[in-house]
Amino acid sequence: MKPVKEKEFVARMRKTDGTDALESRVVTLAKPGDMTDKECSPLMIYRSSEGCASCWRMSWRERVSALLFGRCWIHVHSGMTQPPVALMVTRDVRFWG
Q1: 51 DSSP β-pair partners
Q2: Which CA distances in Å does 57 have to 21, 29, 34, 54, 90?
Q3: Which end of the chain has the least Cβ crowding within 10 Å, N or C?
Q4: Domain ranges (residues) in the chain
Q5: pLDDT tens for residues 18-31?
Q6: Is the pTM of this model over 0.90?
């Protein structure tokens, strides 16, 4: 999976946010200095009082695999625990709060 392009991300968040404060809520996270470009790339996220969200696009191969096997793995590069995360397959962002 790859993060969606900036233009698509901002358009989807504008539809969800509906406020003039969108630009202050969209942040680009830099990749950690100890990771290579192959391991990690900058990531755009949307921040709100309910949490933060990023948007990813599956390749056709990943879509077929998800359809056939019904599994998705989350790999977090931040220590020995799993932070609270939610993986959703929806057209637009929905917060769980």
Answers
A1: 48
A2: 25, 18, 25, 10, 11
A3: C
A4: 2-69
A5: 666 677 788 888 88
A6: no
